[in-house]
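Structure tokens please, single chain.
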Amino acid sequence: RAFCFFAFFFFFFQAEDGIRDAQESRGLGDVYKRQLITKNVKSMIVRGNSKVSQRTGGHYVTDSLYPRSEAVSSFDKHSPQKEEQSFVLPVNVKSFGVTSTKLGITSKHLLVGTTADQLLAIPWQHINPRRPTETPTESDMAEGLMKYDAKLPFVTTSILSYNQTIANIRGIVAVPADLESTSLVMAYGVDIFFIRSTPSKGFDVLNDDFNFIGLALTVVVLSVASVVLCWTVKRKDLEFAWK
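Here you go.
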């Protein structure tokens, strides 16, 4: 009996050079709220005083709470493990927010509304309280941990509002999009500013210059090759049966 196999191929391409960060997803929030997540870290809060230094920005502390075992119960008397580290932000702060994605796989960014009425994104890797004070080991580098530096760098490319100002910015809201890589961010005040944020880059989005014609031709060639192969197998089986 002859068997004919038709192969159907589905291609998934990663946009640009975006990859999932080695760092696990973590919740962020300010002193007024907490963000719960479903990974190892149960909650993380950012707290501080933005009036420490008007020249260099505020002094803030990040806290992460880890369960001490895989199974966590509300009846467990043991307190979670706590990691804490302090940082000096390069800007003065009006409001805080945090990116949010559908499945929580994508790394998070801390969203900062500055006194200059701009929207700044700070990667979790920069404010991770687990950043080592000594030279990072191989395991630390595998997790994406950098050596601790109290003063956070000011990266102009991290300004989500570009050269625009959001007049009297008062709050930041971020909600998940259908794409895991994307978080929908809105900053509001007198003005309203909206942007799509991709903290781990657009790993599930195709480039604008993606070669769709090449993909279509590849699928057509493979389909034709499958049909020809099926016909050849049937013919050989028929010839073998008449011998």
